[in-house]
Amino acid sequence: MLDVDVIEDPAAAAAALEPVRSRLLSELSAPASAATLATRLGIARQKINYHLRALEAHGLVRMAGTRKWGGLTERLLVASAASYVVSPGALGPVAADPERASDRLSATYLIALGARVVREVSDLLRRSREADKRLASLSIDAEVRFRSPAERAAFTGELTRAVTALVARYHDDSAPGGRSHRLVIIAHPTPTPNEAPRKESSCP
After folding, report:
1. Residue 14, burial from CB neighbour count under 10 angstroms (0-12, 13-18, 19+)
2. What pLDDT score was predicted for residue 82?
């Protein structure tokens, strides 16, 4: 089972987002039969089988084995991944695209960047799995608490200068066999439950 799988097919996304099928996927983190799932969810076994067939048709669940029960042979199914992300590519031409954003300091531009990361990395991950190779990637996740908007602005300037210097030092358009990598750095306020939004300047 994969830790995370990206759903790129619109029909598969629709199947996974249907409430009963979404619940089935969460229940199938470990192999289970239709009869077991029917008992857990309080839904008729025939309906469970209907939903399982739809999920199986889209590769979201797979057969994990069989077992004998009451003179019958039951199929055991398991989800293809522990969790899922729907790729923006599933939305086709209306998917978020940072190239269409007019304000690069806006939250919508940040969301569009995130959507592009999901779209591009999921495609690279799929190809690396097909080639049975590990995808080289780097991610840094940190939290910083600024004392004031002025310090936040100072941090932004210092970070920008440091990244610009590093890119200038290591970037080489003419390197034989070199490969370009996309570097995305984002910052946003840490979500706090029930906290009213603050009116702040648009800088990170």
Report:
1. middle
2. 93
Measure the CA–CA gap between 56 and 80, rounded to whole angstroms.
Answer: 9
Cα-Cα-Cα-Cα dihedral of 95, 100, 104, 108, to 10°? Answer: -30
What's the predicted TM-score (pTM) here?
A: 0.76
Q: What angle do CA 56, 58, 63 make, to 5 degrees?
A: 25
* DSSP bridge pairs for 192: none
Q: Is the pLDDT of residue 204 over 70?
A: no
Q: What secondary structure does DSSP assign to 120-178, as a single string?
A: HHHHHHHHHHHTT-PPP----------SSHHHHHHHHHHHHHHHHHHHHHH--TT-TT-
Average pLDDT over residues 107-121: 91
